[in-house]
Amino acid sequence: MARKTPEINSSSMADIAFLLLIFFLVTTTMDVDTGIYKKLPAIPEDEQQNDDVKVKKRNVLSILVNRNNELLVNGEVLSISELRDKTKEFFLNPTNSETLPEKGLKNVPYFGDVMVSKGLISLQNDRGTQYATYIRVQDELVAASRELRDDKSAQQWGKKYAELDVDQQAAVRKYVPVQISEAEPRNTGGK
Amino acid sequence: MSKFRKDGKKDLPAISTASLPDIVFMLLFFFMVATTMREVDLNVNIKLPGAKEVTKLEKKDLVSNIYVGVPMRKFQKTYGTMPRIQLNDQFATVDDIQAFIASERESRKEELRNKLTTSLKVDEYTKMGIITDIKQELRKASALKLNYSTVVKGE
Questions:
Q1: What's phi and psi for A105, nearest 5 deg?
Q2: DSSP type of residue A126
Q3: Which domain holds residue B115?
Q4: DSSP labels, B47-89
Q5: B100 φ, ψ to 5°?
Q6: Contact, A67 vs A128, CB < 8 A?
C-alpha cells in the first residue's frame, strides 16, 4: 500500500523568500544612534551649599548664548565658527599671556612633567536659546578639545587620539583637561 | 584569420537558478538580523540637529529615549503646538521624568542599572528652557549619562 509521496514543488520557495526579503528591506531602519555624549554633574548633597568654587577670572572662558542665538565669549561678540579657534587659543595660551589661563606643573604618565592649563569653560545659555545653536556650540567645544588632544598624541605617538589605547587616552586627557561647566540658565527670554 | 572565427553555433547552456533561493535566503537572514523594529510610535515631529563630533551610541538596550518636539498635526488640537515631551508612547510633562527613569531602571537587570544612558531626541527648533528642565530632572533622578542625539553632518 506504500504509495510514493509526490515531491513538493519547491519552485515557489524563491518567491516566498523574496516576499519576506522585501518586507524586511522595507521595515528595516539601519540608523545608528549617534550623538554628543555628556555627563551631567551630580546634584550636590547639600542644597544650600554654594558650590561655585572661586576661580580666577583669567582661568575662565565664559560663553553666553542669548535667546537670539548670539554668542558672547569673555565679553566679546563672536560667531560660532570662531569659537573653536578661540577655545584652542584659550587652552594653549602659547604666549603665556596674562589674560589667558595660567598653567601648572603636573606629572602626566608618558609625558613626564608638563605644564597643564588650568582653564575652565563656563557655558551659560538662555531659556530662549534654540536647541540647534546649543548643539552647535557643544559641537565646536568638543571639536576644539579633540583637536588639542590630537595634537598632543601626534607629538607623542604620531597617532590620533582616537587610535590610542585606554591608558594613553587617559594620559592625554590628563594633559589636556577640557572642563565645561554649565551654569543654571537664567530665566529670561520666555519659554 | 581562422583565429577569430567563431567555432560553429554552440547552444549556450541556460543559467541555473537553483541557487537563487539560497542567495535570497542569505540576504533575508542578513536583514532579519540587522533590522530593528521601531519600538515606539512618535507623536511629535523631530528633526534632529546636525553635528560633526559625534560618538556612536553603543548597547541600544541600555538606552532610554526622551523625545521632545512639536506634537504632530493630529494631536495639536489636544496638546497644542508648543514643544512637548514624549516618554514611551504618550505625552508627558517634566514631572513624569523621574518616574520614567525609575521604571526604565526597574526593567533592566540589576547589574546594568547604573549603566543606563538617556538619549535626548530633540527637535532643533526647540527652546533650551524645556531641555534645561529635563536636565535638572535627570540630575535629580541621578541619571547622569546623557546623549544629545544628532545626525552626522558633513564638513
A1: -75, 130
A2: B
A3: 44-152
A4: -PPEESS-EE---GGGEEEEEEEEEPGGGHHHH-SS-EEEETT
A5: -65, -45
A6: yes
Contact criterion met (CB < 8 Å) for B51 and A37: no
Report the CATH number that the domain containing residue A88 is assigned in CATH.
3.30.420
Per-residue pLDDT of chain A (191 residues; tens, 9 = 90+): 667 777 777 778 778 888 888 888 887 766 667 888 888 887 776 555 455 566 777 888 888 888 888 888 888 888 888 888 888 888 888 888 777 888 888 888 888 888 888 888 888 888 888 989 989 998 999 899 889 989 888 888 888 888 888 888 888 888 888 888 887 655 554 44
Q: Is residue B51 part of a domain?
A: yes
Contacts of A134 in chain B (CB under 8 A): 128, 131
ipTM of the complex: 0.73
Length of chain A: 191
- For an interface test with B, give the residue of A27, A36, A87 to mutate (most B CBs within 10 A): A36
